[in-house]
Specification:
Chain lengths: ~350, ~350, ~350
C-alpha cells in the first residue's frame, strides 16, 4: 500500500516542506532508510543522519531547525515520535485480527469465552474463568481457575496465568510471562524452612503491558497490584504484595522485592533492584542497575547501589576513578605533615 | 468457614488476650484488614498498625509488649509468622488435590505414572520417565526421557525438564522453570566457538522449591546439584556443575556461574552474582546485587561489587557519598601544604 | 562402549604417556573421577587434582609440565579443552536423532516442514513458515507466521518464536527462549503512554546458541540482528534494534538496551547491563555486573558501574575498601593543618 506525503501530512495534521506527491510504502530507521520509505527524527543523537538519509519522507518536530538543505520531503509535527506511533498503529489495525478456536484446545465447560475471542491451539482455559470480548489468546497459554481477563487483551504464546488472577482490559502479556506464581515466603523451622502458602492473588488493571518471561508473584494475603497503564519490560520480577502505581515504566530485568509500594509515573532503567517493605514515591527516576534500599521521596532521580541522588552519584563516581591518585596525595600529605611537624619542632 | 479465636488458639497452642468468641473467615494484611479477618504481626516495621488495625484477631509473638490498648483479640504464640504458616497450610490442605489425566496428554508407554498423579492437558512425559506417587503435573509441562521425579511434587504449567534430570520428593517447580538445559560451554576454534556437549545431568534433592522462569543448567560432566531444602526464587540462574548446599535460599534474579560450590544455609538477596569456580561457605549472607569474585568463608555477611564485609561496605559507601567534598579537602590541603612549605622556606 | 587410551590418542592425534591399553567408558571431572573414566586438565586452578585423580586417562596440554609422578595415562594434545569437546561431540553424534511428527501437533498447511525434521507433540507451526532440513523441534514450541528456520537447528521445548522471525542454520534455542516479542517502545500521551507498534523483525544468523528463557525483542522498524556464531546464555535480554556482532559471547542475565550495536568477538560476564543507542567495539571484554553507559572502543576490558578500564576499576575498588581510614586521615590532616596555620601565625 502506498501513501503520499500529502495524505500522511493530512492525517497527522502536519506541515509539508518539499514535494507533497512523493510516495512511501514502508518504514525505516533514518540511518538505514532507502527511497520509498518514511522515517522519523526524534532522538537528537540521530540528527546528523537527516542530511544523508535516503528516506523519501521524514517526520520531524516543528521546533527542529535545519542547518543544511535536505533532500527528503519533511512533515513537521508537534511530536515526531508520537506521530510515528499513530502511523504504526494504523498499520497494526489494518492487520486482520485472529478469531475462532483452533483445535485442539481445552476450554472448561464452566469457562466463559465469547465467540469473538481467538483461542490458539493447545491453550488451556480452566474452570470458572471468564474472558472479555475480542481478547486474543495465542497457542499454549495456560489460564487457571477463577481467572478474569477483560476485553481486547492480547495474551501471547506460552503465558501462564495462575488461578484467581484478575486482569483488566487492553492488556498485553508477552510470551512466557508468568502471572500469579507463589510469592517467596518461608518460615524457619529448625535448619530448614516451611513454606508459607500464598493465598492472595495478582490484580492487573487496564492498559498494562508485561514483557516476555516476566514474573509477577501472587500475594501472601491480599493482592499484588499492577495499576493501570503500567509497562513492564522483559524478565522483570515483581514479588508478592508489591503495588506498582499508574503509568510506571520499568525496563528489562528489574526486580521489586516483597511488599514494596512503587508510586505512579516512575521510570526505572534496566536491572534496577528495589528492597522489600519500602515506599518509592511518584515520578521517581532510577538509573539502570540502581539498588534502592530505603524509601524514596516523590520526584527523586537516583542512581547507584545504594542509590544516591543521580547528580551526586555522577560526581562521586567521577572521584571514584581518581581514588588511587587521591590516596597517593593523602600519603604524601601525611609524609609532608610529619616533616612539617618535625621542622616546626 | 468460620473459626473462633478459641479454636485457633487451641490449634496453635497460643494464649488469648481479649474476646475468645470472636470469629474470622479470612486472612488479611495488618494494614488492610477488615472485621472478620485474622492478621499477624511479625516484622516490627508494621507494629504501629497493631493499634489501628480493623482485624478481629492478631497473631503476635509472646515477647511483644503492648504500648497502647488494642481492640482485636490477640493470640500470643512463640513465633507469629510460623503460626500463620501453620494456619495457611491448613487451608491449603483443605483444597482438593487434582488427580487423573486430562486429555489430550502425551505419556510414553515406557513412562511410569501412578494413578494418583494429576497430569494436566497438553503435558508430555517422555520415554522411561518415572513419576512418584501423588505428584501433580500441570498442563503444558515437558518432561524428557529417563527423568525421575519423586512423590508429592507439584510441577506448575509450562515447566520444561530435560532428559536424565533427577528430582526428589516434595519439590515445587513454578511455571516456566527450565531444568537441565545445556551448560554454557564453548571451546575457541579460530575466531568462532565449538560447542562442548553437556553430557552431565541436574539432580534436585527433596523439599526444593524453584521459582517461575528460573533456569538450572545440566553439568558438562557429572551433575549440577541442588541439595535438599533449597529455595530459589523467580528468574534465578544456576550454571553447569554448580552445587548448592542444604537449605540455602536465593532471592530473585540471582545468578551462580559454573562449577561454583555454595554452602548450606546461605541467604542471598536479589540480583546477586557469583563467579565461577569458587567456594562460598555455609551460613553466608549476601546483600542484594552483591558481586562475589572470590571464595567466601563460612558465616560471612557481605555486600557490594566486589563484595566486602557488609559493615565495611556500609562504611565505605557512606564515604563514597562524600567523595566530591573529600577531593576538595585534599586539593585545599595540597595548596596549604605548598604554601606552608613556601612559608617555611 | 569402551575405548582404549591408544584409540583415543589416535583419534585426537595426541601423545601417550603411560599405559596405552587402559580402557575408559565414561567421562568425569578431575576431582570426582573414578577408575574407568577419562578426564581433562585445562583450567590450571584444577592442576593439583592431577596428582590425586582416580581417572584412568587424563587429556592434558602438551605444554604442561609435571611436578610429580602421576598414575593415570596421559594423552597430551595441543588444547585439552578442545580435544574434550571433540570427544564429547562424538558421543553426541552417536545418539540417535529424533525424526517424525508426534501427535497431536499443529502444522499449518502452508508451512513447509521436511520429512526428516522432528516435530514434537503439542508444537504449533503457523502459516507460511518454512523449516530447514533435519531441524529438530521439540514439544510445545510455538512458531508464528512467515518464520524461516534453517537446516539442522535444535529448538528445545517451549521456545516461542513470533511471526516474521528469520533464523539461520545450525542454531540451538534452549527451552523457554522467546524470539521476536515486541520491543519496549511507548510514546507519552498525557500522563499515560501509547504503544509504538513494533513492525520490525528479529534475524538470527547461523551457528547461534540462545539460552533458556532468554528474550530477544523484534525491532521497531528494520531488524534486531544476532550475527553468526553468537552465544547467549540463559535469561539474557536483547532489546529492539540491537545488533550483536559475530562470535560475541554473553553470560547469563546480561541485558542490552535498545538500538545499541555490539561488536564482534566480545565477551561479557554475567548480569552486565549496556545502555541504549551506543556502540561497543570488537573484542571488548566486560566483567560480570558491569554497567556500560557510553560507547566503548575496540579491544577494551572494562568493569564496574559506570564501567572503567578493568585495571583502574580494580585499583579504585581496592581504595574504596580503605575509604573510612582515608577519610579519617583527611580529617586529621585538616586538624594538623589548622594547628600548623595557627602555629605559623
Amino acid at each position: 500500500m502506498e501513501f503520499s506525503a500529502q495524505q500522511i501530512a493530512d492525517f497527522l495534521k502536519g506541515d509539508i516542506t518539499g514535494n507533497p506527491h512523493v510516495n512511501v510504502s514502508d518504514f525505516a530507521k533514518i540511518e538505514e532508510a532507502v527511497p520509498g520509505t518514511l522515517t522519523f527524527l526524534s532522538n537528537m543523537k540521530y540528527a546528523p543522519y537527516l542530511y544523508s538519509t535516503k528516506a523519501s519522507i521524514v517526520l520531524i518536530n516543528k521546533t527542529f531547525e535545519l542547518t543544511e538543505p535536505v533532500s527528503p520531503t519533511l512533515i513537521r509535527v508537534d511530536d515526531a515520535y508520537a506521530s510515528l506511533a499513530m502511523l504504526l498503529s494504523l498499520i497494526e489495525k489494518a492487520k486482520q485480527r485472529k478469531t475462532g478456536r483452533e483445535k485442539p484446545v481445552y476450554v472448561a465447560e464452566s469457562a466463559s469465552v465469547p465467540e469473538n475471542c481467538y483461542v490458539g491451539v493447545f491453550t488451556c482455559i480452566s474452570e470458572n474463568t471468564s474472558i472479555g470480548e475480542n481478547t486474543q489468546i495465542y497457542p499454549q497459554v495456560f489460564i487457571g481457575e477463577n481467572v478474569t481477563i477483560g476485553e481486547r487483551c492480547i495474551i501471547y504464546p506460552g503465558v501462564k496465568i495462575y488461578a484467581e488472577t484478575r486482569i483488566g482490559k487492553n492488556c498485553i502479556l508477552h510470551a512466557g510471562a508468568v502471572i500469579g506464581s507463589d510469592g517467596f515466603g518461608f518460615a524457619p523451622e529448625g535448619e530448614a524452612y516451611s513454606k508459607i502458602p500464598q493465598i492472595g492473588i495478582v490484580e492487573i488493571e487496564d492498559n498494562v503491558e508485561i514483557g516476555a518471561n516476566a514474573t509477577i508473584d501472587r500475594a501472601t494475603m491480599g493482592k499484588t497490584l499492577i495499576r493501570k497503564g503500567v509497562k513492564l519490560d522483559n524478565l522483570v520480577h515483581i514479588a508478592h504484595n508489591v503495588e506498582v502505581g499508574e503509568n510506571t515504566v520499568m525496563a528489562a530485568q528489574t526486580g521489586i522485592a516483597g511488599s514494596t509500594k512503587i508510586g505512579a509515573s516512575c521510570m526505572f532503567g534496566g536491572q534496577v533492584g528495589i528492597s522489600g517493605h519500602i515506599e518509592v514515591g511518584d515520578n521517581v527516576k532510577l538509573g539502570a542497575q540502581s539498588g534502592v534500599h530505603n524509601s524514596v521521596k516523590h520526584n527523586s532521580t537516583m542512581m547507584g547501589t545504594p542509590a544516591l541522588d543521580a547528580r551526586n552519584f555522577a560526581k562521586s563516581s567521577a572521584v571514584f576513578k581518581q581514588l588511587p591518585e587521591l590516596r597517593w596525595d593523602i600519603i604524601q600529605l601525611i609524609k609532608n605533615s610529619d616533616n612539617n611537624t618535625n621542622d616546626n619542632k
